[in-house]
Amino acid sequence: MILLSTSGLPITLSENTYKLSFQNHLTCDSEGDKTCNKMVSLLREPDSASETDICYRFYRDICFEEDRSVFQAKDLRYDITVIMPGTIKNECKKTSGHYHGYINNSTYTYPEVYEVLEGRALYILQKVMNFSQEEEPVISDLKAVYVEKGQMIIIPPFYGHCSINAGDGPLVFSNLAVVSCPLYYKPIETKHGLSLYACREGNGEITLIPNPCYNHVPEPSIVHPGQNEKLGIQFGHSVYHAFTSFPDTFDYLNHPEDHIDQIESLLASSK
Ligand SMILES: O=P(O)(O)OC[C@H]1O[C@](O)(CO)[C@@H](O)[C@@H]1O
């Protein structure tokens, strides 16, 4: 058993099954999984997906009973996702990917916080302002963000995103997300995934391959995320505890308008 100490919570990961267990009255409201065959419409080589191989498991609405009212008051939820090690054919296992919908009475869509608890993540982020229209998506920015254990990122408004296991073992990450945020999957399914596929070469290196279903894929910037204490983004500090101790810090998840520059600048540091 591996204790997910980065989370600051009593959660262990089985080294055999990669399932999570919750201790000390920490509760998880629901859990589920997605097998590789359910990913067919999102893969570079769809014919290679198995019905029994799990691609990822998700655990939703994790909290201590005494913290539930804080999450409810802010309409936020803390979830954990475990992406299995390995590839489907040679594509790294990943989540489906989606866009977030518009915030009521706002010209922005919802952001979200991700925190890597174990392993190494690669997040593909593509900015598409016309995601909700049935027309060719126009990608105005493309980022490949490598996030290590203990680090976190904010998905800025308008960025379609998927999470990829870029490490050798399982990838475990948490998200702090707005419960009532609408999710758009269709525009990504129609294009057979986001605009970049992460594939393993024979030497183990990851190569980013453009998805030919998009008309124009901009050159991606390779990004290593930055920190901002005012946004509750401090590497090595648990997001769960940051939120439950200072819930107002994360008000930008429902009202990002005044924080866009700060949010975007966290993803500006390329190497
Ligand atoms: O919804 P997708 O794209 O399959 O991604 C899965 C993960 O994304 C989240 O919805 C967070 O955005 C997690 O709760 C979930 O496990």
Automatic annotation (TrEMBL):
<comment type="similarity">
    <text>Belongs to the archaeal-type GPI family.</text>
</comment>
<dbReference type="Pfam" id="PF06560">
    <property type="entry name" value="GPI"/>
</dbReference>
<protein>
    <recommendedName>
        <fullName>glucose-6-phosphate isomerase</fullName>
        <ecNumber>5.3.1.9</ecNumber>
    </recommendedName>
</protein>
<feature type="domain" description="Glucose-6-phosphate isomerase prokaryote">
    <location>
        <begin position="48"/>
        <end position="206"/>
    </location>
</feature>
<dbReference type="GO" id="GO:0016853">
    <property type="term" value="F:isomerase activity"/>
</dbReference>
<dbReference type="InterPro" id="IPR011051">
    <property type="entry name" value="RmlC_Cupin_sf"/>
</dbReference>
<dbReference type="InterPro" id="IPR010551">
    <property type="entry name" value="G6P_isomerase_prok"/>
</dbReference>
<keyword id="KW-0324">Glycolysis</keyword>
<comment type="pathway">
    <text>Carbohydrate degradation; glycolysis; D-glyceraldehyde 3-phosphate and glycerone phosphate from D-glucose: step 2/4.</text>
</comment>
<dbReference type="InterPro" id="IPR014710">
    <property type="entry name" value="RmlC-like_jellyroll"/>
</dbReference>
<keyword id="KW-0312">Gluconeogenesis</keyword>
<keyword id="KW-0413">Isomerase</keyword>
